[in-house]
C-alpha cells in the first residue's frame, strides 16, 4: 500500500516595515483614540503646508516692495463695505496683503522655531551625554551653568544674547543675519532642559549590562554614547522638543514684537503683530487680529501635540 508523501509548506515570515510596526504600536492607538490630538495634528500640518506653499497661495509677495501699492493701504477685509479683491483679509499701512504676510510670516516663524529647537537640542543632548557619562568636574561645571541659567526667564536670556550679538555685529544687519541671531538666542535659551533630562537618563543607562559589555570589548566612549546610550534616551527628548517648538515660536514672536526680531521688510508673525498694534485703536483691527489669531492657533496646536506625546510615551499611563 502506497502513501502520498507529506507535503510541508514553508512560509517565510517577511520582516515588518517601520510603518507596519508604528501602526501596531501603542502610540498610534493612542493617537487614533484622541479626536483633539487628531485635530491638533491636522491644524499643525495645515500651517506647515501653508508656509511651504506661501509662494503659490499668496496673492502677492509681501517681501517685494515693487508689488506694494500705498493706495491700497489699510483696506479692511473683503466682507466689509470698503474691502477689495484680492485682499481677502485686508491690508496694512504699506499696502501689504495681510493673508500673504501671514503665510510668509508663518514660514519665518516656523523656520526660526525649528532651527532654534534643533540647535538647542543638539547642544543640550551633547552636554547632557558628556555630563552624565563622565561625571566628576565636567558634570559639576555643566550642571552649575545650567542651574545659573535656570534662575533667569528664557526670554531675558534671549534678549541678552540678542543684544550682545547685535552690538558686536553692528546695527546694520540684513534679514539673514538677524534670523541667525534669533536662532542662536533661542537655542542658547532652551538647551538646559535637554541637558538635565539626558544627564538623568544617562546616569541610569550607563550602569546597565549592555554598556558594561560595550566597554569590555573596547568600544570607545563616543561610540558608546552615540550608538548605545543615545537611542535609549530619545523618548523624553522628543517630548521636550515638541513643547519647546511652541515656546521657540512664542519667543521669536516676543522678540519681534519688542523690536529686536525680524525687520518690517521680512516680517514674522511677531513683527506683524507689532505693526498692527500701532493701528489697533484707530480702527484697523484686522492688521493685528489675523496674525495674532494665526500665532495663537499654531502654538495651541503644537502644545496639544506635545501634551499628547508626553502622555503617550509615559509607560505609567498606558
TrEMBL record:
Membrane topology: Multi-pass membrane protein
Upper classification of the organism: Bacteria, Pseudomonadati, Pseudomonadota, Alphaproteobacteria, Hyphomicrobiales
Transmembrane regions: 36-57, 108-138, 150-169, 175-192, 237-258, 285-309
Compartment(s) of residence: Cell membrane
Family: Belongs to the binding-protein-dependent transport system permease family.
Primary localization class, coarse: membrane
Residue ranges of domain ABC transmembrane type-1 in the record: 106-306
Keywords: Cell membrane, Membrane, Transmembrane, Transmembrane helix, Transport
This protein's name: ABC transporter permease
Amino acid at each position: 500500500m502506497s502513501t502520498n508523501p507529506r507535503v510541508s509548506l514553508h512560509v517565510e515570515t517577511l520582516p515588518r516595515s517601520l510603518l507596519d510596526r508604528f501602526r501596531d504600536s501603542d502610540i498610534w492607538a493612542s493617537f487614533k483614540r484622541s479626536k483633539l490630538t487628531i485635530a491638533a495634528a491636522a491644524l499643525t500640518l495645515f500651517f506647515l503646508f501653508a508656509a511651504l506653499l506661501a509662494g503659490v497661495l499668496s496673492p502677492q509677495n509681501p517681501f517685494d516692495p515693487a508689488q506694494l501699492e500705498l493706495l491700497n493701504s489699510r483696506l479692511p477685509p473683503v466682507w466689509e463695505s470698503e474691502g477689495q479683491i484680492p485682499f481677502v483679509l485686508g491690508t496694512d499701512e504699506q499696502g501689504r496683503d495681510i493673508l500673504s504676510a501671514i503665510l510668509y510670516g508663518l514660514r519665518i516663524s516656523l523656520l526660526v522655531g525649528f532651527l532654534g529647537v534643533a540647535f538647542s537640542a543638539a547642544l543640550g543632548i551633547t552636554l547632557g551625554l558628556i555630563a552624565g557619562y563622565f561625571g566628576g568636574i565636567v558634570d559639576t561645571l555643566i550642571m552649575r551653568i545650567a542651574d545659573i541659567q535656570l534662575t533667569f526667564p528664557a526670554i531675558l536670556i534671549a534678549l541678552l544674547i540678542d543684544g550682545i550679538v547685535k552690538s558686536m555685529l553692528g546695527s546694520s544687519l540684513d534679514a539673514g543675519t538677524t534670523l541667525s541671531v534669533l536662532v542662536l538666542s533661542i537655542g542658547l535659551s532652551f538647551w538646559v532642559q535637554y541637558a538635565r533630562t539626558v544627564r538623568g537618563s544617562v546616569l541610569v543607562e550607563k550602569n546597565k549590562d549592555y554598556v558594561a559589555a560595550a566597554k569590555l570589548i573596547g568600544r570607545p566612549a563616543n561610540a558608546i554614547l552615540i550608538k548605545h546610550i543615545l537611542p535609549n534616551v530619545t523618548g523624553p527628548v522628543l517630548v521636550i522638543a515638541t513643547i519647546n517648538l511652541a515656546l521657540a515660536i512664542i519667543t521669536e514672536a516676543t522678540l519681534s514684537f519688542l523690536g529686536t526680531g525680524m525687520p518690517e521688510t521680512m516680517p514674522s508673525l511677531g513683527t506683524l503683530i507689532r505693526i498692527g498694534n500701532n493701528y489697533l485703536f484707530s480702527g484697523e483691527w484686522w492688521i493685528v487680529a489675523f496674525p495674532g489669531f494665526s500665532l495663537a492657533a499654531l502654538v495651541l496646536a503644537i502644545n496639544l501635540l506635545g501634551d499628547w506625546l508626553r502622555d503617550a510615551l509615559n509607560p505609567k499611563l498606558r
